[in-house]
Structure prediction request, 658 residues.
Amino acid sequence: MTDLVLTSRYSDADGFGKACFYEAEGRSGLVLNNTAGRYQETASLPLRAALLRREFLTAERLKAALDTPAEAEIAGLSLLGTDEFNYCRNGRGAGAKLDTVRDLDLPFRGLSTADLYAAAESLAPAKTRIRPRAEKLPTLTAKTIFGGAVISRSMPLTKAMDGDTMVVTREEDTGKPAYMWMRRKFTRRSLGLTDQSMLRFDLDHDMHQAQLVVEFYTKDDVKISHSMLGHGGSHALAIPRECTQLRFGLRISGTGRMTLGDITFGEDSAVPPAIVGPAGTLVLTKQYPAYDDLYRYGFLHSRIRAYREADVGVDVFRLNATAPKTYTEFENIDVASGDIALLDATLATGKYKHVLVHMIDPTMWKALKPWLDTVKVTIWVHGAEIQDWKRRAYEFPTMSETEVAGKKKRTGAYMKLWREIFGSAHKNLHTVFVSETLYREGTEDVGAAPKKPHYSIIHNYVSPDLFDYAPKSAEQRTKILSVRPYSSITYANDLTVAAILELSKRPFFDELSFTLVGQGPLFDETTEPLRDFGNVTLDNRFVLQHEIAALHKRHGVLLVPTRMDSQGVSRDEAMSSGMVPVTSNVAAVPEFVDERCGFLAPAEDHLKLAEAIETLYRDPELFLKMSAAAAERVRRQSGFDQTIAREIALIEGKAPNT
Prediction:
């Protein structure tokens, strides 16, 4: 009925109903009838599945509907057939089959108009702000145009520069347009026109007509078409798909003077006055995964997807003043980006009652403090942001003196930040640590700890659906996988390489296969010693989570040494898939791996890493037992109930369980 009542809002037909409809037919299931009738005018409708406007509901039609409901029809009026959903003929008793008929359950349906108006009313008057850019837009300067423009002897034109503006003068009118062309063509890529088509320029004249002409060429210098732009300002070019080069010129009619400024490709975007999303909870972060940067905060993306699967909506705000776009998307999660001023304006709308902060920094804290009386703030602590520099001194040999000094100074600022946060007993402030080890080491480094009940220890979530367990075969113990970023020596990829080199000295090496996947500035240099091995595959690329899950299926052992981990989510994901981890006994790793489900080599010990792989090679039964134990442990320790359910309780304001 709701479907049909809503139809009256967008149709002026006399009646509306189900011309196209599902029909239950015994045990055989559902049949869809008259698909051509969707949203079409129709000659008749069954009264049992239609609504009539009041003036057309005569006593005769009402009597027919009551006496013979199966046969009664409407005809002779203006009638509209709607879609087939939310109605099934003979559907009583159809049970689960009716799931096909019902509307999709969409828990996140965007922002209501009422909410949008309320947020707009709360905003103070403000001037438009232009989003700052990390890089300047491509520009063809007037000086470049002047230097490259050629005037034919037959053309009655002169050119000159007046400051930063090119001046073109025509003193004689021949009755025909005069042209001026640049000698060279410009590639589409050099002008930033591969994924956008906007340009902007200033053009003034007192002639009959003055136009900027843009010609489009193929890679073989064949002209395709052209555009003529008759006034300055912003324009969208209709660039043909096969165009790879552009040439610029001027077309002038009549006599007089014209001026042309720089031509800028692309356009600056305005910063919105505030971010207003459909949820009442805002996730604040410095980074978020993108299709071209998959390893940025994957742990956060996993959380937000799990929230949504549990019908808990959150909006994401990425604090980044130089992000080129305000709104982006990654795997159906919308991400807003902006600066501190935009964050402050967003909180001022009153739309968000709870902010979930990941990887806080002093700038974030300064912005959030004034809102603590009206907004709950929950801060997740993940690792590097709370650790003293001494815990990461292993990085110093790869850093310059200036970088080392900067790291120590940064640590001092963060220690001050955490002491202030932990010293606050504000009722709206809560801290979440992702491991017991991180809580212990972090509070030791800071020299202070949050007071109960203002903190919780909740591990990062590992999805058993995405990283599902299927029993491994004994043969998979010989298939070793490494999936790591190559951006820092923290990930200990050099130890992975050293372990493989050590195994290459052993007689069974050719029976093993290794797959190393990842991307970063250290990839080529680190993996160079392995390039000549036929049983080593080097895959220098980012991989999505579903691709990682597929790699887990094909391998049995995860070679994942490390120099620092507050948990080790990628390792746990592999364990969830049944892979046996060969890792390092450092930081929080022993909190998540024991001798029943994996191997813990001493720090910096590539020989013990190689020894662990040999142990698995020689004992297939041990491999199978450890594989099953690894999958079981992750589900017991980092499953939904132990992680996401507790986080949702925090989001919903329930008493946290530390």
In short: The chain has a mean pLDDT of 93. Residues 285 and 387 are 19 Å apart (CA to CA). The two ends are 48 Å apart (CA to CA). The longest strand covers residues 256-265.
